[in-house]
Specification:
Keywords: ATP-binding, Cell membrane, Hydrolase, Membrane, Metal-binding, Metalloprotease, Nucleotide-binding, Protease, Transmembrane, Transmembrane helix, Zinc. With 582 residues, the chain is an alpha/beta fold. 54% of the residues lie in helices and 12% in strands. It has 4 domains: 101 residues, Signal recognition particle alu RNA binding heterodimer, srp9/1 (2-Layer Sandwich), CATH 3.30.720.210; 182 residues, P-loop containing nucleotide triphosphate hydrolases (Rossmann fold); 70 residues, Helicase, Ruva Protein, domain 3, CATH 1.10.8; 177 residues, Peptidase M41 (Methane Monooxygenase Hydroxylase, Chain G, domain 1). The structure holds adenosine-5'-diphosphate and zinc ion. The site of zinc ion (ZN) has 5 residues, from helix 17.
Length: 582
């Protein structure tokens, strides 16, 4: 880019120099050394001594002889003069039509315009964006300061990314083992959870250049431009040998294609996406280039992007739980003098805050402290900032909602977990959290099923009970009128399992050992009775679930309370509570 700039800057300079020389040349030739009679001039014409005549706007003519001498003579202002001269093979330079003062003015104007245009183009090239040269943010020099210590929480994501760092540091090692490292990684999760930060940290840890651009840079540009930008970006990265390329908002170019209606309007996006995929398949594994893309929703991405050899590693970056929030808060307080802050309390009050929102909270508090000329940041500043950050909601009301959501989700998840612990003890409950995922659930309970190639009837019934455990807990604790929409996903799964049992696996009474899907046109007549049988099955399992939870209400409450406090429980904590005598 610098080279280009240097080359372009010469164009106006050269134009200016050229114009000045041309003007000097003209005025030099218009100045004669001495004067001659007009008759002598006519003689010179007849003697064929003259090479050139300059007609000034003044009353004089300037005559240049073939021997190089120059003189002036009176201009007869005869209309035929020019013609006569030309007939005698004498060159005529008529400066009347040339008009020096105007010429100078217009040349200056011309030069200025040319310069301005070039400076403008130049500025744009170096600045935000030109047509194909996108401003690729290159952090190769300043990202050394960023590493995984700059990212608090997100331990699972960091661990997963550690492999990528190692690969970037030593691609040959992986090649020697014949291992295929991912070329593309997708970080997905709510906005502000630190996806960009993680990508920068990967580059920082591996000490390779970091190139970033956003998918939204490709929206509404001319067809072909986005693809060219992608190629430029990769060219730039490849010239560095190793690099991390970060594409934020990948969904802007990689969204699932809509139905048949999606047509020419998406040409640009398709071309850009294809260019990206082509570039990604274009570099070899040993090259040490990793593309990290970020999106809020993984499920909206085109499956072409997610295939092996493309973005085949998907890492969730979730909202921080209470202990992660405490770490993030303390990280952002590091460079701010503070006094007697109750970090645990701040973390507790900020459920569902993203890392970015926490950073914002601390920053607001620091601004308030600075405004008050307070030497230290105190709890009071944090409290004031808290109301500012939550502005738009009545503070109390919002706080109230947060608490209520947490309470509901805690019991719901505790219900799932407890039923799983009681009814499917072979499946490990490895994590319970009330921190929402981007998939829309308010929280989730992660169970790792025992490996098995088939599932038995009693297990399927127990699975349904685990799925119903969330809703059942809500009903037991909050009452029938207070059940929530939180069980939506659970109910889809319940319906699918029970339907398969009766219609496909030969586990029901209505069809016996017949498969509904094999009945062809006759399947319609069995539709309603099958649904009826499913409903009865699920209802009776639900009653059983409610009974079981009621019997174990103490345990349910114990798990839920621990969840409210810690927001996330790992396997050990879960089993400790479960096995603890009440
Ligand atoms: P995303 O790319 O997921 O939208 P960013 O990485 O841009 O989020 O995060 C924005 C800012 O929020 C970061 O620059 C950082 O200050 C803060 N932040 C977010 N998550 C974390 C975290 N886990 N640890 C520390 N700071 C964080
Ligand atoms: Zn649930």
């Amino acid at each position: 880019m610098n080279k280009l700039k240097k080359n372009i800057i010469w164009i106006p300079i050269a134009t200016a120099i050229f114009s000045v020389i041309a003007l000097a040349y003209i005025s030099f030739w218009s100045k004669a050394n001495y004067n001659k009679q007009y008759s002598n001039f006519l003689e010179d014409i007849t003697n064929n001594k003259i090479s050139k005549v300059i007609v000034n706007n003044s009353s004089d003519l300037t005559i240049l002889l073939k021997d190089g001498t120059k003189y002036s003579t009176t201009n007869p202002n005869s209309p035929n003069l020019k013609e006569d001269l030309l007939k005698n093979d004498i060159e005529v330079l008529d400066t009347n039509t040339f008009n020096p003062p105007k010429t100078i003015a217009s040349s200056i104007l011309l030069v200025s315009i040319i310069s301005a245009v070039f400076i403008f183009i130049n500025k744009r090239k170096l600045g935000t964006s030109s047509i194909t040269n996108l401003d690729v943010k290159d952090f190769s020099e300043d990202n050394d300061a960023l590493n995984f210590n700059s990212v608090a929480g997100n331990e699972e994501a960091k661990e997963s990314l550690m492999d990528i760092v190692d690969f970037l540091k030593n691609p040959q090692k992986y090649k020697d083992y014949g291992a295929r490292m991912p070329k593309g990684v997708i970080l997905y999760g709510s906005p502000g959870t630190g996806k960009t930060l993680l990508a920068k940290a990967v580059a920082g840890e591996a000490k390779v250049p970091f190139y970033a651009l956003s998918g939204s840079d490709f929206v509404q540009v001319y067809v072909g431009v986005g693809a060219a930008r992608i190629r430029n970006l990769f060219k730039k990265a490849k010239s560095q040998g190793k690099a991390v390329i970060f594409i934020d908002e990948i969904d802007a170019i990689g969204k699932k294609r809509g139905g048949s209606s999606a047509s020419s309007g998406n040409d640009e996006r398709d071309q850009t996406l294809n260019a990206l995929l082509t570039e990604m398949s274009g570099f070899g594994e040993k090259e040490g280039i990793v593309v990290i893309a970020a999106t809020n929703r993984l499920d909206t991405l085109d499956s072409a992007l997610l295939r092996p050899g493309r973005f085949d590693r998907h890492i969730e970056v979730s909202l921080p739980d209470i202990s992660a929030r405490e770490k993030i808060i303390s990280l952002h307080l590091e460079n701010k003098p503070h006094y007697n802050l109750d970090l645990k309390d701040i973390a507790k009050k900020t459920a569902y805050f993203s890392g970015a929102k926490l950073e914002n909270l601390i920053n607001e508090a620091a601004i308030i402290a600075a405004k008050e000329n307070s030497s230290l940041l105190t709890q009071e500043h944090i409290n004031k900032a808290y109301s500012i950050v939550l502005a738009g909601y009545e503070k109390k009301e919002r706080g109230h909602y947060l608490e209520e959501d947490k309470l509901l989700t805690s019991y719901h998840e505790a219900g799932h977990a407890l039923i799983s612990l009681l009814k499917t003890p072979q499946d490990k409950v490895s994590k319970i959290t009330i921190i929402p995922t981007t998939k829309g659930a308010g929280g989730y309970t992660l169970t790792i099923p025992k490996d098995s190639s088939y599932q038995r009837l009693d297990y399927l019934k127990n699975r349904i009970m685990v799925l119903l455990g969330g809703r059942a807990a809500e009903e037991i604790i909050f009452g029938q009128d207070k059940i929530s929409t939180g069980a939506q996903g659970d109910l889809s799964q319940t319906t699918e399992i029970s339907m398969s049992m009766i219609a496909e696996y030969g586990m029901g009474k209505t069809l016996g050992l017949l498969k509904l899907s094999s009945l062809g046109s006759l399947s319609n007549s069995y539709g309603n009775p099958v649904v009826e049988e499913c409903r009865e099955l699920v209802n009776s399992l639900y009653k059983e679930t409610v009974n079981l939870l009621t019997e174990n209400k103490g345990k349910l409450t114990q798990i839920a309370e621990k969840l409210i406090e810690e927001e996330t429980l790992d396997e050990k904590e879960i089993y400790d509570i479960f096995n603890e005598k009440i």
